[in-house]
Amino acid sequence: VALFFQWQYPNCMFIDRDEFLLGYLNHSHGGKHPSPGLEYGICALGALMSPEKKTRDLAEGFFSAAIKSLDLLTPRDTSIQALLCCSFFQAGQANFSQAWMLSGIAFRMLQDLGDVNKDNLSYSRSTSRNARWRTFMNCYESDK
Q1: Angle at 63 between CA 57 and CA 66, to 5 degrees
Q2: Closest CA relative to residue 4, chosen from 29, 34, 41
Q3: 80-114, pLDDT tens digit by residue?
Q4: Plot region of 70 (φ>0 → left; ψ -120 to 50 → alpha; else → beta)
Q5: Is 127 exposed, middle or buried (0-12, 13-18, 19+ CB in 10 A)?
Q6: What is the pTM of this model?
Q7: Positive/negative CA dihedral, 50, 143, 105, 134
Q8: How many CA atoms does the CB half-sphere of 69 hold within 13 Å?
């Protein structure tokens, strides 16, 4: 997780770092953050940045665990974020078709959540509204 936030987070600003870390450090799996899929997606990207081969070798397992733990039938912000992390992971492995398919699922799932107009998002907190907008923009760019 630390490697992700040190090296990959600037490319994944759709994740609310403070909200994720608060949930992660408190081990509150019942709340909005963290979700197992998002945790594993973050770990997959972070593991790739390790100077130790042993840690880098764990990345594929984290990716597989992220995919297996996703509930694709119920759109959630954390599922969308996990799909984007998995998409970026696949792009980094030069699996561009899989990366595009994962980002496409994320984009369509985000559309299922409702209006993504920046001024009319379904959240009352401005940080959540901004996070949803950043997620939308990352989905849009990844799906192009």
Answers
A1: 145
A2: 41
A3: 999 999 999 999 999 999 999 999 999 889 888 87
A4: beta
A5: exposed
A6: 0.81
A7: positive
A8: 18
**What is the DSSP secondary structure assignment for residue 94, as one 8-state letter?**
T
**Rounded CA separation 37/96 (Å):** 20
> What contacts 16, CB < 8 A, 6 or more positions away?
33, 127, 128, 131
Least Cα distance to 139 among 3, 15, 10 occurs for 15
Contact predicate 142/87, CB 8 Å: yes
Of 94, 135, 97, 144, the residue nearest 113 (C-alpha): 135
Tokens matching residue 54: 């042993």
Q: Which two tokens stand for residue 84?
A: 């984007």
CB atoms within 10 A of CB 100: 16
* Whole-number Å distance between alpha carbons of 35 and 18: 14
